[in-house]
Amino acid sequence: VQLVESGGGLVQAGGSLRLSCAASGTDFSGNLMRWYRQAPAGKQRELVASISTSNNTGYADSVKGRFTISRDNAKNTVYLQMNSLKPEDTATYYCNTWSGIHYWGQGTQVTVSS
Fold it and tell me: How far is CA 9 from CA 4, 83, 92, 99, 101, in A?
């Protein structure tokens, strides 16, 4: 299983970014997909959003109403639309799925300036 994230970058507070995670080597449509993030300075990796095989979604309280997770099974891709970004959203964002074991992408950096 390979997960490749893209779409990170530097944005001002209040701006938007759209992250993408392309999956291969797995039955994508049958997998729960998640986005995690890890802020610098040794903070723990935090679950940001998840989307089930039937498109049920869940969000961390800190991003509810601002972030939207979606998936395109035809493209084997999961997205994270991030609006109204805040400096505290600065982190490396990781795509995750489970297929016997946990699989992670390499991460994409999001930096929000104040």
Answer: 15, 14, 10, 29, 29
Q: Tens digits of per-residue pLDDT, 17-54?
A: 999 999 999 889 889 999 999 998 778 999 999 999 99
Instruction: Count the Cβ atoms, other than its own, within 10 Å of residue 65.
Output: 9
How far, in Å, CA of 55 to CA of 22, rounded?
Answer: 17
What is residue 43's DSSP assignment? P
Question: Residue 46: left if φ>0, alpha if ψ -120 to 50, beta else—which one?
Answer: beta
Three-state DSSP class for residue 7: coil
What number is the average pLDDT over the span 82-95?
Answer: 97
Amino acid identity, residue 85? L
